[in-house]
Amino acid sequence: MSLFTPLRNPANMFTALVLVIFALTPFVAPLIGESFYITVFARIMIWAIAAVSLNLIIGYGGLISFGHAVYLGIGGYTVGILAFHGVESAWIQWPLAIGISGLVALIFGAISLRTRGVYFIMITLALAQMIFFLAVSAERYGSDDGLNILARSDFGVSFFSLQDKMTMYYTIFAVLVASVLVSWRLVNSRFGVVLRAAKSNDARVESIGVATYRYRLTAFVIAGMMCGIAGLLQANLEGFISPDMMNWPRSGELIFMVVLGGMSTLFGPVTGAFVFLMLSELLAGWTHHWHIIFGPFLVLVVLFARGGIAGLLSRGVRRG
Amino acid sequence: MDYVLLTEQVLNGFQLGIILFLMAAGLTLVFGIMDLVNLAHGSLFMIGAFVGGTIALLTGSFVLGVLLMIPAMLVIGIVVEMTTLRTLYPRDHLDQVLATFGLILFFNEAVRLIWGPEGLVVPLPSWLDGVVALGFGITYPVYRIFTIIVGLLVAFGLYLLVGKTRIGMLIRAGASNRTMAGALGVNIPKLFTLVFGIGAVLAGLAGLIITPITQAAIGMGEDVLILAFVVIVVGGIGSIRGAFIASIVTGLIDTLGRSFLDDILLFFMPSNAAESAGPAVSSMLIYILMAAILFFRPQGLFPPKGAGG
Amino acid sequence: MLKKLLGSAALLALLASPAAADKVKIGFVTTLTTPAAVIGKDMRDAVDLAVEHIGGKMSGLDVEIIYADDEFNSQKGKQATERLILSDNVDIVAGYIWSNVLLASAPVVLNEGKILISANAGPAQLAGAQCHENFFNIAWQNDQTPMAMGELLNQVGVESIYLVAPNYAAGQNMVAGVERTFKGKIIGKDMTVWPSQRDWSAELSKIKAAKPDGVFTFYPGPAGPAFIKQYQQAGLSGEVPLYSVFTLDSISLPLFQKANMEAVLGTKMTQFWAPDMDNEANRKFVADFQAKYGRYPSYFAAQSYDSIMYIKSAIEAVKGDVLDTDGMRVALEKADFPSVRGPFRMGNNHFPIQNFYERTVVTDDNGDWTTAVGRVILKDHQDPYASQCKMP
Q1: How many domains does chain A have?
Q2: Do residue B280 and residue A292 have CB atoms under 8 angstroms apart?
Q3: Is C20-140+278-350 CATH 3.30.10.20?
Q4: Among residues A225, B292, C38, C341, which one has the fewest Cβ atoms lying within 10 Å of its Cβ?
Q5: Amino acid A273: pLDDT
């Protein structure tokens, strides 16, 4: 499958459109007097990266992690804590953030992958809440309030500074594109084939002598690292970190973005994050009671829109 | 160690455990029998508090509030089950988690629209107010003792209901083998609706009974919900006995941790850090316990029989 | 599709930013959802009343208030602030209940060169090292009120105290404030999980065991009544006097009265303002607030009302030229307007230098529970962080 084969699918055309919007926003938004949307879209892209990473394990691995937001927190806190102690170099911050996310994912994955089904949902939730409370208890780093980060990660070169709005925006954009590419390569490799096969029939894959546990664990660690990157970007963009970035409702929202866009589709999580966050942004601007609309909307999506937006769009075309 | 303080803290932990048990009992029944992950169970906790609290304020009687809350929650539970949750039984856990996550948002906002953002303050009848001397210099709030007694009675009632009655037999049959029970002529949909109704009443009772202590507030069920999930997973899904033991253990860990951990942490860190780390570390302890139990017993302390996970 | 999207975005832009300059746009950030919305409602009511009192005009220009919800969450608060600045193009931002929300949001406003006025939150950072020429606080610095409380405790002869407060920026500042001035012994301190912890059984048992002369607490919003109720249920209210700041106010007192919790009558607190303070601006504010909404205004309401009058004084000083930030800054530093707290002045760090009074919970002539202002505890008091503030 070439990377562009999926473009013939209308769902992926919709995603391509979303990506084009992301790419052009910094130029178009100021023209129509809405530079506000530059930050909004940057934020959405970060969530999209996290959702793409979660899709690797939920969509392709069939592992419903209810604690994925913890890696947003770990990536963010690594940057925040280092900055707090005066270490602002991106060359130290970023590898550490990614490394620690991977290490935590390795430990958590090793524990939680021993369980199945709903026990897996609950143990990933519990492990994430543990780190959440660790952050809450860290008085030095602001307890419940978190920390303000006064300076963004410094690459030490004059032509590439994240303090610059455009550089920050397009760095996030590039990471998003890269994360989609990585997951495309992974899913279509031998590794991805085993992962997907194990999702549909674990026993059969085991019976031909493949240790699925190792494959799952590897996917879990890669997803954790990718989400850690989203976390370090979020800390840089927002300029502060707080335990709330990794509280359990964030994990729930991440799952929702994946499902809304279309699980186990390459671009689904990107569209999912876009639609989820734009919708909440627009509804929140319209009424303070927006949850009363958003809640039933979520229920209806689950009940009637199987396969998410990707599923809806492909079905719509088939019918038409 | 100060034994008066220790005894009080054990009672406090026990009382928290009882509230958790009332939440967890309904959750574990619904989970064990219908295989439904219901995040909106916390919303039923909240609705019970608001509905029962309103009745108590209108009638001027807290006891009447509790008694009338029971049929009200039964009806609400049945309506929720028949309109939305029923369609979720054949779905996978992922769909259930998401749909009930959506329900939480809806219920929180609906309660805000009906009761306003400020919540409810429910007064206690004078005979439940104040403290009682338990001897040895220990005094304890009457209402918290009342809470413990109510919880123990409910636990005993559930034990009788599930273990000794025909409905209980059907529930157990439905839990261990749904198709078989259906084949034997059990009306499975009706049974499910009833079980959900019972779960709603238990959650509502937990919410209402804690209200004179904490007040009714929007979103009050969410923190308890996560703890209740920990409890039922540790106890073994579907096991009332497991839920009871795990609830009490969780309540004790949380309370004893909050009260004594900062003294212990003082040996390791400066006093300010210890003061704030105490409560958070004790919250972490609960999740560490859960991870440890699931690591060694992936199906909890009392794994469901015959259900095969 | 793209065209459509862009089209609707352009339409949104047109709707959102009609030709400006003929009015003053003020963004007001507070909490309008979550249980803490009860505070936001009081603030919004007071702002509406203030706008009514000034006839909807400042220096001849129409006033438009755009309320934004922080959802009791710093990230959401920051996003709401971004929307006000970048999308609604407000001239001035005011409001902010929570110190953590303010700390996260302040850079958004200040980096755009606009003026930010806190109507409540007064975290230490913004009063000290991170003070800013365009940031003003019209309420108080977090440490001040509890410092007055520490002094009050000294005066009434309390020798040992037990501190209970939530573990977030303001809670830490409140406890630190008492510790600064209180000369007796602090025999216990619990910082509780905020905002989720609503049951204090473990802490109350510890207090009982510690037998202090008094307990100091700080629980703003709906947590306050819950704490005090449990304090009473634990049998402590007759035994150990409770001292509080920002916990008993006209939002919570009617709830206590409804629940017949007479234990709070006679409770002492400290504050810069009280509804019965005798000056012209306050008499008009309290009377009209009661007439319009049928309840006493809280201190949140008083500060919000003041913030609008404060902004008006600055807009008038620059004759309606909202782009003249320098001119407005000079006017704001003078703080020349009739405040409901009576006269006060602005310090070098743009936080008030003002009196703090004793307040006691009493029953008013109509039988409603309220607070009565007592003697001055701290006179012309400046916060302890002002010396760390170096304005450019």
Answers
A1: 1
A2: no
A3: no
A4: B292
A5: 94
